[in-house]
Amino acid sequence: MLYRLLRPLLFCLDAENAHRLAMFVARRVAAHPRVASLIHRLLAHPAPRPVRVAGLDFPNTIGLAAGLDKNAEAPLAWWAFGFGFAELGTVTPRPQPGKPRPRLFRFPGLARGLRPPFPIGISVGKNATTPLEAAADDYAAAAEKLAPLADFVTINVSSPNTADLRSLQNAADLTRLLQVVRGSSGDRPVFVKLAPELEGVALASVLDTCVAAGAAGIIATNTLATAGRPEFPEGGLSGRPLRDLALRRVAEIRRHIGDRVAVIGCGGVDDVPSAQAVLDAGADLIQLYSGLIYEGPFLPARISRGLTRPKPGS
Length: 314
What we know:
This protein is of the alpha/beta class. The chain has one domain (2-306): TIM Barrel. Helix content is 39%, strand content 15%. The strands form three sheets. It has an eight-stranded parallel beta barrel, surrounded by six helices. The chain has a two-stranded antiparallel ribbon with strand order 1-2. A two-stranded antiparallel sheet has the order 9-10.
């Protein structure tokens, strides 16, 4: 209720300034463990729905997607707000500037803080200036530095914001990337995050490659590329416009891989029914991002309380 009163004020701000304000609040929460614990217990109070996935224990199935806490500034805050895990980054081996502003838009129609008591994942990628033929070196370098701070590592080959990155979604490149990232990550499980546009024979080939090369799971999906769609700024489109496609991809991936590896569903989840649909389609876990912008920071806790039953087979 409080967020519904505050949201019109936040939406008066430029989207990136609103994001900065939200991260400022999250950092303050993360800096005070007692405050974080109080928020978790009294305001968020997510339902305990523990699940074991890829050898890790998650207190509930609702996680934070990569992209919101890019610099791993506030992991304890995400636990306070009721998440069952968080994926931080994407992190590249060398610092790089963001795209020119404006770069965040709304369409209404590790951390310096203490480690939270849930699994932390870190998404790794290549620098924009690194040629594709040297991409594996970037992924390996980032994983080597960050894996000791993480519980799992994600290979991001699907961001629409890095030129030609999605061309790495092929058997040869993914085999190499999984080889070097797994070699740099110790015993941490490694996930691969795929684009929603990948489908059919191409998707099946990528899935078979990931399983054969030792991936612990698949994250479906990243954002929709807006290139060639003049009604949207260039970049990635997430939230409800992605919901139906992401749901179909989760189901398609689960049908193809069976129970060989885990599936994390991501895209357009912003309430209990959409979350339940992703679990019923075959996901083991769910990730949120855009839903928080429209529904507020306690959305993960509300979803965890509202799910009427665990995923079949969990």
